[in-house]
Request: fold
Amino acid sequence: MFHIERLRLRLVRLPLVAFFETSFARVYDKTFILVTIDGDGVEGLGECVADVDPYYSEETTVTAWHVIKDFVAPLLLGRAFDHPRDVFPSLARVRGNNMAKAAVEMAAWDLAARRQNVPLSRLLGGTRSEIASGVSIGIQDSLDDLAAKVKKELDAGYRRIKIKIKPGWDAAAVEMIRARFGAIPLMVDANAAYTLADADRLAELDRFGLMMIEQPLEYDDVRDHAALQRRLTTPICLDESIHTVRAAEEAIALEACRIINIKPGRVGGHRESIRLHDLCAAHAVPVWHGGMLESGIGRAHNIHLASLPNFSLPGDIAASRRYFVPDLIEPGIEVSRDGTVPVPTGPGIGVTVDWDRVKAATLETCDVRA
Ligand code: NPG
Reply:
């Protein structure tokens, strides 16, 4: 049992080590909300993955701040919970806004794990002591730049390479990688940049033996993905479209994908991620853990979650140094030469926050009490 006595929101901005470009935007820094929950003399931490712009999803840092402060916090403050899995259902009155809910819900899981003095992975049902790590490489200015990035990440030991694609930056990029690096574990992510009218062009990717193509079509679509999957041998992986467990049930029933990417921010936190993980396991659909350019705090949450058994493919959970130097945690997340990350063994998320760094990166703070 734990109490939720105070919620603190911090708007934090960190410069990225290098720009990151998807089919929808190029970003140079990451601005996000850090959530702290206080209860029973213990603190829990969560990171909101909403961006400043509504390009990946509808939510933004401003909408999440508003929803947490004015709607989520009042439903939780002053209450006692037997288990953090009870937090998400108690927010049911608030529709959607999963990134806002997840940041708070995940902080509650951290708090509960710390209160019990166990690593978060134990509370979540994790079974691994290390997770397999892959990288996501954004769209580059040239194929030579892309080749240099791929080489660097393979040399670092990462277990699979994902590249971002969009019309005009797709088959040639994949062809170059296959020609220069051979049969490496390779996948592509379109972030909804194509339509069903592009099916023939997407089918051209089949000859490259990709592990999967992620979210080729609209962010809220399932039906067209099912039609596309019937025309591709490459497995489709859904990301944006899977905003709830129900959406995953529909996608699986319609055979719209063969793999699912789990991001706790997209589905409302750890509880819903576990339900999604279990649903996929029951249907023999492999899952992997996505990334949203998190700081070490959100990254630590992801590592614990990715220790569950059906996370059988390498996730977008890479080393801190690829994103932020310095990170908000010390030491940062490290990836071993064989492309794995150990699951932290200390209480809760099990990483040490450098509060001076958090303070230096904070633009705005807000406390909410019962
Ligand atoms: O390594 O954290 C990471 C980035 C992984 O490619 C990645 N994330 O569409 O999954 C995505 C993409 C993304 C990044 C989406 C930032 C939204 C914001």
Remarks:
- The chain has two domains: 2-117+353-369, 123-342.
- The first strand starts at residue 2 and ends at 3.
- The pocket of N-succinyl phenylglycine is lined by residues 22, 51, 56, 136, 189, 191, 239, 290-293, 316, 318 (CB under 6 Å).
- The mean pLDDT is 98.
